[in-house]
Amino acid sequence: MPPREWPEEMRAALAALRPANPRHPLPQTKDRPKALNALGTLARHPALTAAFNTFNGYILFASTLTPRQRELLVLRVATLRGSAYEWEQHRVLAGDVGLDPVEVERIAAGPDASGWTPFESAMLRAVDELIGDGEIADPTWQLLAAEFDDQQLMDLVFTVGAYEILALAFRSFRIELDEDLKRKSDSHI
After folding, report:
1. H-type alpha helices, the chain
2. Contact 80, 129 (CB under 8 A)
3. Mean pLDDT throughout 90-100?
4. Which contacts (CB < 8 Å, 24+ apart) does range 176-182 have?
5. Which of 183, 182, 1, 162 is nearest to 84 (CA)?
6. Is the pLDDT of residue 132 over 80?
7. Alpha carbon distance 145, 41 (integer Å)
8. Distance between CA 66 and CA 70 in Å, rounded?
9. Is 131 left (phi over 0), alpha (psi -120 to 50) or beta?
């Protein structure tokens, strides 16, 4: 659905993405992909979009995880779920938070790829375990708990869950890459 056809309620749904007390800055918007295909799909259900955006706004802008940590998790979810849309959107965001292209490619290679710190490897492994087994295994949890407090551990699980939902939705709804994403794409997903 193109923006000119969005229902009036979509404005409130989009506003829900901005938490009252953000910890992290809002992303750059100038010369950035606009995600209009995803937003146009979500505009078909503004009430659901507003509810999800409240949750996702927290994940993006108020989480106890750093933006870099968040993008490690999101890109691993996109890899495991084969969500090209999620991958391309967050590949751009990953660059904004300091992940270089080599690191981004290494995310797709997984937690056993050389170059990760033990903690980063544990974060990626946690995504694999959550998606594969529905829980983080004790050895991975212990590595994470050595550096993360309870809130960060919870934010990790909920970040993976939020982007798991989006990957499932993007693939099920067959959301195609926007033209601005196709121009930036290097997708192998």
Report:
1. 9-15, 36-42, 46-61, 67-81, 84-96, 101-109, 118-133, 138-145, 150-172, 179-184
2. no
3. 90
4. 176/37, 176/85, 177/37, 177/84, 177/85, 177/88, 178/33, 178/34, 178/35, 178/36, 178/37, 180/32, 180/33, 180/34, 181/33, 181/85, 181/88, 181/89
5. 182
6. yes
7. 38
8. 6
9. alpha
Asked whether the predicted pLDDT for residue 183 surpasses 70, the reply is: no
Please report the pLDDT score of residue 20 as a whole number: 87
> Can you read off the two tokens belonging to residue 181?
């994403």
| Cβ neighbours around 39 below 10 Å, total | 18
Section 133-146 average pLDDT: 98
Q: 113: which 2 tokens?
A: 């790829």
CB within 8 Å of 56: residues ≥ 6 apart: 17, 162, 166
Nearest CA among 65, 82, 168 for reference residue 120: 65
